[in-house]
Design a protein that fits this description.
Shape: globular
Structural class: alpha+beta
Strand content: 25-35%
CATH architecture: Alpha-Beta Complex
Number of domains: 1
Oligomer: single chain
Helix content: 40-55%
Number of helices: 5
CATH superfamily: 4'-phosphopantetheinyl transferase domain
Distance between the termini: 9 Å
Low-confidence stretches: none
Amino acid sequence: MAIVGIGVDLTAIHRMERCLANPRFLQRVFGPEEQALIARRGVQTAAANFAAKEAFGKALGTGILHEFSLAEVQALRSDNGQPYFAFSGRAGALVQARGLRAHLSLTHEEDAAAAFVLLETQQEAL
């Protein structure tokens, strides 16, 4: 396997509180499973998930504005709490076409949430 990109992002919790006041933002940015997760866990989770989307775009090298919808990149949690990505739509097709595997780490405190993403190919490095 070979690393093809890394990305990191930091999101202010107070900024996310303002954004979530607009229901259209929630629908446009977060997928259905993320919306349920945010409803259970709150604004810090929303901020961490937003940071994950930004960090993914940076690791991909495309940013988040043109290649795919933000809701197609969902940052979810396994039963033990480990974060992972679930891709759909154009984002899923892009990840599959490039043969990528994504690793995600999240953290948050009172005023900020951060995400770190590492992308690797599923093929052996030459």
